[in-house]
Design brief:
Structural class: alpha+beta
Helix content: 10-25%
Shape: elongated
Number of helices: 6
Largest sheet: 13 strands, antiparallel
Order of helices and strands: HEEHEEHEEHEEHEEHEEE
Radius of gyration: 20 Å
Strand content: over 45%
């Protein structure tokens, strides 16, 4: 699994030379300027990436630190998220990306936000899922963390509410994954932990599996 990173040079060129770019804040939270760029039909960002607006945040050194993207209607209907924020770290590389899902999708699926954590090689190593109150009341956990290595899931942690923990005597569930030679994944072990992080139970080849979707 790789994060889809937009080409920074193309982005910067668009912001610097586009007639639709303007400064909307001279001093933002990073002590730099914030630019707004509006894309329209004929622009690469609009046609290929389905972006109609972007907000670019610079720091006091005039280095890019964050870009917020807003997607057009067709993209949103296909992908179900309407906004994305990319955070830039060392060497102007994305180290985190947040995806914000539509209210309709959140109401139907219970998922309202996903965060990808990216390593220096551009690989997604963690995915954080955040759920609505309605979802939490049904399943008991408000978020979960998927861990990956070279695109393969190694484990998923589910973090349950205090009320759930009191009733079921565990606060965190950890599902561990393995893959067969054909690439099919399977949960072979579930470990349950209490609020202090102490193991309270483990289940071989569990049957009640929930796997997050996006």
């Amino acid at each position: 699994m790789k994060v889809i990173i937009l080409v920074i040079l193309l982005l910067i060129n668009s912001f610097l030379f586009s007639e639709t770019t303007r400064i909307i804040k001279n001093k933002n939270d990073f002590d730099g300027k914030t630019y707004e760029t509006i894309f329209s039909k004929g622009d690469n960002f609009f046609e290929k990436l389905k972006i109609y607006k972007a907000l670019t945040y610079y720091d006091y050194k005039n280095e890019i630190v964050m870009v917020e993207y807003f997607f057009n209607k067709d993209f949103v209907e296909q992908k179900n998220y309407e906004r994305k924020i990319e955070y830039y770290g060392k060497n102007k590389k994305v180290n985190k990306a947040e995806f914000f899902y539509t209210k309709k999708y959140a109401d139907e699926k219970g998922l309202y936000k996903v965060i990808d954590i990216v390593d220096e090689n551009g690989e997604v190593v963690q995915v954080l899922f955040f759920y609505t109150d309605k979802f939490v009341s049904k399943y008991g956990f408000s978020n979960c963390i998927m861990y990956l290595a070279k695109g393969y899931i190694t484990k998923i942690e589910y973090n349950y509410t205090d009320d759930f923990a009191k009733r079921h005597n565990y606060k965190v569930r950890e599902d561990q994954y393995v893959y067969d030679p054909e690439g099919n994944k399977k949960v072979t072990l579930t470990i349950l932990y209490n609020a202090e992080g102490k193991e309270v139970n483990r289940i071989d080849n569990p049957k009640d599996i929930f796997e997050p979707e996006r």
